Input
Amino acid sequence: MSQPSPEWIAVDWGTSNLRAWVIGSDGQVIAALSSDKGMGTLTRDGFEPALLGLLSPYLPATGKLPVIACGMVGARQGWIEAPYLSTPCAAPGLEQATRPKVRDARLDVQILPGVQQASPPDVMRGEETQIAGYLRATPDFDGVLCLPGTHTKWVHISAREIVSFRTFMTGEMFALLSTQSVLRHSVDSPDWDRGAFLDAVSDAMGAPQRFASRLFSLRAGSLLDGVSPATSRARLSGLLLGLEIAGARDYWLGREIVLIGAPRLTDLYRQALAAQGAAVRETDGAEIALAGLRAAFEETKS
Output
């Protein structure tokens, strides 16, 4: 049996990586492709060559192949800026997409916009497509989606709209403190201390004003008391996450919460929130972006 021909291509283009799925006329994934040519490594004239380098074997000899993209490819520093939609709003679709100029006539590229919030000022780019993917399967969801990552998003969803959201730089702060601060000498370990993590979450939530002091105590504890790097690393993570959860209390308290992301990260959030009595569900975010891109493509058939 011959393989179905490509009908369209879904692209999730972030700061560090480029992912693409070639979708056949039967709706199945013909090929899942990836590259390290993220937005952060490219100049504006480098996006089309990077895309062609990945997709060339699947492009038709004649005619155009639709390419629907989301993520940082639409940022101000990306291929072309795709303007933000303002909350409250539904997750963006192709009606709001932006088309960059392309040289290769076989490409018909559309980039989905991000979402902005006026007060407090906030933006997302890429997560809105993950939200669309979740709502494609769960259209009646009314609650809070939490998308852990470098910049974690807490998003209030109601009536299939993004009502409001808040971003926390917890992941980036952990990366900076664990690799570029004095704490790097005390937290270099692949191991983990779950008890220390949960205790630190509680400490940060109970006394957030002591956060900066507790950070230096991690270094002092390793010097004076021989606290292991595994324990110090877990405490650093717990202090940062506890501070975030305290700041996001008005999002998660008394609401249904769904965590979307890599299992390693969502498990930490689940543990921390469960310790506060919150009911949480987890969803692996690996294919959520693809589901959101599928939702956008389906608009062309409706």
Summary: The two ends are 29 Å apart (CA to CA).
